[in-house]
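Notebook B, p. 112. Complex prediction, attempt 2.
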Amino acid sequence: MEAIGQLVVILGTIGVVMVTVLLHVAYLTYLERKVLGWMQDRMGPMEVGYHGLLQPLADGLKLFMKEDIIPSGANKIIFSLAPILSLIPALIGFAVVPWGDGQLTIPLPWIGDVTFRPFVTDLNIGILYVLALSSVGAYGVLLGGWASNSKYSLLGGLRSAAQVISYELALGMSLVGVLLMAGSLSLVKIAQAQAGGFWHWYAFALPFPQIVALVLYGIAAVAETNRLPFDLPEAESELVAGFFTEYSGMRFAFFFLAEYANMILVSCIATIVFLGGWHAPFPFLDFVPGIIWFLLKVYVFLFGFFWIRATLPRLRYDQLMTFGWKVMIPLVLANIVITSIAQYFWMN
Amino acid sequence: MTASLEFSTYLFHYAPIVVFIAIAAAFGVGTLVLSYVVHPRIFSSEKLSAYECGSEPISDARMPFPVRYYIIAMLFVIFDVELVFLYPWAVAFDKIGLFGLIEMIIFIALFVAGYAYAWRKGALEWD
Amino acid sequence: MNHVPTPTTKRSSTDEFGVIEHVPDANDGDAAVLRTEELLLNMGPQHPSTHGVLRVVLDLEGERILKATPHLGYLHRGTEKLAEGKTYQQIVTLTDRLDYVCAMTNNFAYVRAVEKLLGVQVPPRAEYVRTIVAELQRISGHLFWLGTQALDIGAMTVFFYTFREREILIELFEKLCGARLTYSYYKVGGVSDDLTPDIIAALRAFLKAFPDKIIEYNTLLETNRIWLARTKGVAVISAEDAVSYSLTGPTLRGSGVNYDVRKAEPYAAYADVEWDVPLGKNGDTYDRYYIRLEEIRQSARIVSQCLDKLPEGPVSIDVPGITFPAKERVMVDMESLIHHFKMACEGIRPPKGEIYCATEAPKGELGFYINSDGGNHPYRLKIRSPSFVHLGAFDHMARGYLIADIVTIFGTYDVVMGECDR
């Protein structure tokens, strides 16, 4: 009985996580348009609802009702599956993201104790799991681009592959410094280790503040999520819409959803790994619930995504790869070496 | 309460992910099916042709295509595997002490040597 | 046109115009060790950054361009032929539709050609007003260019900033002549309306605030390393090549050739004011960007000098047979009414002869060749539009670059297809 109770709790948690993520994705598109609008001297969406607040719903409904076209030359199976292949990793990555601490055990009659936890599951390889999923997500883009049988899609898909191989190393290695200090791959344990004020957050913590790693992680994360200035796979002014040129309706929406969900995911990881997760910046602010701090930090990162998009032009394909291989990798390697030496002397 | 169902067991850590995958896939497929039911179908052969800026596609997109970065792609596979070795080392760093530090610095030195060689040979040049 | 392309579509050798495309053969590759096939890619006419309906067929190897063939004519409206059936003052409205971003300059270039054919001189105030308006149009045209070029390269914010200032100018033009895009403001013999004191005041306010705005655009671009990487060394053309491809305007001056029609054959009030011709060194996209920004500053300088020196007097000549009589006289005066009627149905009759007159448009040298047989409409009108000439150098400038650079190269010419296809 207790197992069934726990299963129901897990199902419930998954439901809550998924609905929360999807709602955040929907309103992230709205927020992005608003923020870009304000930065660009215009209003952003204003028509649907008060200040355009219902715009995401209208957009979603529109895409839902649109005809779903599969081009005649496309490989139908891969073309149909690619958006789902892109969406699933983006959603299930949230399984290991903790948004708070502690647990709540409620003894229920007949069923027994059920325990509520602020995460779906705590894997002891949490970071590896997320990194692995981010690579799997790229398959959706690549296969979608190839299956469309359109040259623009093909070029977009190939660019996406180039991007993954250029930035994944930097993304993975930028986290190693924190792992050295935390001694765990579990996101829950990493976040718990940063309690007690912002000087314990790994971005600022001794022996070697990982602030450089945070910046490098940020750059690699922008590249992994295909956002400007690294939005080459969908470079609008060059490849029309890149890998999703041929997609319409709900399948198009899935790619879109996956992109925004990935943005939230990488922001969550950055928050947990570098900025202390749900911990308040000062111990006396602990009375504010952890979830608020967590969301605040995540939205700081998301705002950064928008800000970068409003500011920077797009890199070129070769420049992107050169930057990834010749600038990012030496820097993350140096960070690992320095951090490990500093950590060794700190421990002794 | 049986031991195999404790929260700390392996199964209980990974089971939620399987459930999550199932739910996410169900969400994806379900939405597509629902959309399939409600969306309009207006047939037009032009609509089904591949997009090439309004002109008829000159040629098929499925043709041998020179992927310029294939050497980089191969380097990526090698370096990515090396990266995976860094993770257990980093996690166990406080237990393996100076030996681990020196050993990993040698490992990174080898990594850097390979990297420098590739750079020197022009493998990282895009073209 | 109606068949559905299937995966088995052959690499066809003709496009819908029956033009035989270059079909690459695996055997004709030069020293290619691996057998790689070239990809033929249509870019345009329906593409977000081909500035209208330009179509380019790209011959690609990976993303590198082996050959770029512009296909023109998607916006062809037969302006030159249409002009043969219209009276001289009616053609002004056709010129609005050439370079629809800078309609004022087209009007100016055309009426100058007709005036040269007629041998008339416009009043000094008209010359100054024409100069002011033409330079404002240059500013607004360059702002349009800067915004779209930045947007093509991915810097979207600059686009909204430049369009904010362009809007101020468009509103000024609307106050001046009632139209926002197709102005038809210049008339043979002068301009249609005078600058009113409140327009002048608004203009001075604009000129005062404008330098800060230019700095604002520049903070987003000039020191941005991505912008520099995307523009420096892209689409390089040497001075000799630029001259032999007949490039003009900022595209030519970017390569360091000092040729500006306003300096070479000064017209309007350009000889009376002080200004410089900015020149580039490397002939790359960055130099052309720099030159256009500098030209915006110089144009603002010209406008403020012209405003200071603005003479009094009429803004149009009043010669029967060339200009319409004033409307208030037509209402009360029989002769004026007859004159108006004759102008409206017969129009201007220039003497027999031919003329070529070049004007410095924001995009380059805009020339009108008019062949008159003494009738009230031209026997032949030929427009030398800079965009069309510039596209001749497209292949030369695009070869060896990447697809991403193609949009930069489109942008760097400041191509407007209305003018290109005519």
